[in-house]
Design goal:
The protein is an alpha+beta fold. Helix content is about 20%, strand content about 20%. Strand 2 and strand 3 (about 40-45) form a beta hairpin. The structure holds adenosine monophosphate and zinc ion.
Length: about 110
């Protein structure tokens, strides 16, 4: 199901343009509009899921992670490495309530610790 007020649902429906890098029947991946590294792609399910804590969506969560690997190959960053991030909630800076992985790489990234 898609939500009419959700930005990512609008992208899925084609109501808002995106720079698509990968798509299959379950997943859409497109370039982040405000990249933090040379490669910064958002990977989203084609159904509106708000957060990671729903066991009924375990398949699609796995699909997102496996797709990230395929997309890293496609973008030629599999060998050089990459980071996958899920922001969850206010303190993490989550601004879109449609679950998404950030796939980031293409250059050395700052350590997170
Ligand atoms: P988050 O903070 O995890 O919710 O990340 C949301 C991400 O969506 C941010 O990195 C934004 O730059 C990105 N974003 C917002 N609007 C768009 C858009 N129209 N197309 C691509 N990326 C977007
Ligand atoms: Zn949505």
């Amino acid at each position: 199901m898609l939500f009419k007020d959700c930005l990512f649902c609008k992208i899925i429906k084609g109501q808002i343009p995106c720079c698509k890098v990968f798509e299959n029947e379950k997943i859409l991946a497109f370039k982040d509009i405000n990249p933090v590294a040379k490669v910064h792609v958002l990977i989203i399910p084609k159904i509106h899921i708000e957060n990671t804590g729903q066991r009924k969506h375990i398949d699609i969560l796995g699909e997102l992670l496996i797709s990230a690997e395929d997309i890293a190959h496609k973008l030629n960053i599999f060998e050089s490495g990459y980071r996958i991030i899920i922001n969850r909630g206010k303190d993490a800076g989550q601004i879109i309530d449609h679950i998404h992985l950030h796939l980031i790489g293409g250059e050395p990234l700052n350590p997170i610790n």
